[in-house]
Structures are given as structure tokens and as C-alpha cells.
Amino acid sequence: ISQAKKATRLGQYNKAFKIFLSAAQKGNIPAQYHVGTLYLTGRGITKDISAGVKWIQHAANDGYPRAQYYLGTLYNSGEHVKVNVKLGQKWLGKAANQDYAPAVAKLNELDEVPEHLHQKKKQVMQGTRQEKMLVAVRRGKLDKVKKLLNSGASIDTVDSVSHKTLLMIAA
């Protein structure tokens, strides 16, 4: 589906739709999601809300967190579907259970983070701090490093590429 993503970036939506649809019909879950979004926006194909929601639902049912998140936001907002907050929270929760950061953030924004997701939220936030910390150390941004350490980032962070700790990188 990389060719379809490239076609999308180039604005060649008809081409992208055909490639995504072919892959989706063969069971490619991310392609199912993309077919759904193209149907919802009418890019590359005549706009068809029912077909779009169907394809996104299919990808969500198959466990694709991006589709679960999108479906949750659709149900919460009533965009393209009848508002159903309970169903919206269900789908956002499924995506958050897979550590899909936008879903965790959206649930937090809605003040609806289920108790079992509080730890996941902390893990996602900690991971984000660690990534920012690595970038700040590499760039020599000491003020940023201090702020991140004060917000809970760990000095024991290890770069997954070089396998060095922050102190080794900074030296």
C-alpha cells in the first residue's frame, strides 16, 4: 500500500483509491481504513458515507487502532453517524488499550479515562517525554533537558538506535 500512500500525498486520489481498495478486498486492514476515509471525503471516489463507515468499522473490528480511534471520534461527534457517546467511548477505549496515543489523549480530554487506562496514559506520556529528551540532548538544548527532567523524564533513557544512555550521548 506504499504506492497508494504516495499517490495520496501527490493528490492522485483515484489511483490511491484503486490500490487501497484492491488491498482492502484482500484483507489488508490499514487499506480498509484508508478506503473508508476516502469514501467519507469523496476523494478518488464518489462520496459514500455508508460505505466509508462500513470500511472503517471493518478495520476497527479487525483491531486497527487508528480506525477504532476514528470511529470513536465519529460516534462522539455525530459526524457521518448518529451520536452515540457510549459507542464512541467504547471504540476510543479499544484504541487506547493498544497504546494508541491520540485515543488516550482524546479520552483524557473528554475526562473519560477508564481506571485501567491511567497507567497506559502515564506510559504514553513518559514515552513522549523520553523521545523529547533524546532530541534535546542530541541538539544540546540544556534548558529543554532541565524542563523535561523536572516533568518526569528519566536520565536513564536509552537511545534505541545507538543504545547509549543520555549521559553517553551528551558526553
Determine the number of helices (DSSP H or I, runs of at least 4 residues): 10
Mean pLDDT equals 81
Question: Rough shape?
Answer: globular
Going by helix content, strand content and strand pairing, the class is mainly alpha
Helical amount? 55-70%
Number of strands: 0
H/E series: HHHHHHHHHH
* Major sheet summary line: none
Strand content: under 5%
What radius of gyration results from the CA coordinates? Answer: 20 Å
- For the termini, the CA-CA separation is 42 Å
Show unreliable segments: none
Characteristic key phrases:
171 residues, mainly alpha, 10 helices, 68% helix
List the helices and strands and how they pair.
Blueprint (H helix, E strand, L loop, with lengths): L1 H8 L3 H13 L3 H13 L7 H13 L3 H13 L7 H13 L3 H9 L8 H21 L3 H9 L15 H5 L1
